[in-house]
Please model this.
Amino acid sequence: MKIHHIAEQNSILHHFLTEIRDANFQNDRMRFRRNIERIGEILAYEISKSFQYKPVDVPTPLGVKHTAAFEDDVVLCSILRAGLPLHRGFLNYYDHAENGFISAYRHHYNHDDLFTIKVEYQAIPSLDNKTVLLIDPMLATGQSIVAVYEQIVSKFAIKDLHIAVVIAAPEGIELLNQNLPDSVHLWVASVDEGLNDKKYIVPGLGDAGDLAYGSKL
Model:
């Protein structure tokens, strides 16, 4: 797996990451969602550098410009519900893309810290021969993304897979590295210290879905 850590270079990305982490800002859900969306736009731009383009001639009022046009057939596929604001950031840039949505969540079967991943609702187009961007803001254990990946490849012959996350733990990156092909690209805005005993990212930011949309039962 190829790993791209965007925050290794200073940019405006750090400002947005600072605000989504800061408890003083997190009560403002609109601001939280907008900052996640902005981070999605930054990730979308960085990923676009790895795509394929074709030469085109564009007529202007004063002549013809020899330039390049997007060639990849892209599908944006987000993991519900936390992935929705990040998805919107990607859609702002890839407005021509098809869209898919998959629910994956931790199922605490003994009502304790132990859990399995359940992948249930799916609303996705055909992914055959498509460039798939799998979008999820938090990469903690990595189990959700591996489970969704296994569902996708069991049904479709995708062309390329790019995984886009805002914050990742080293443990999650390692699980993906062990279970995904070398051809997969992982794009991470920021890599944190690790996981706590409940398998949440530290220092992280909390529950991204709750911060964006409110607490759930």
About this structure: The helical segments are 13-21, 29-48, 84-93, 143-155, 170-179, 208-213. The chain is about 30% helix and 35% strand.
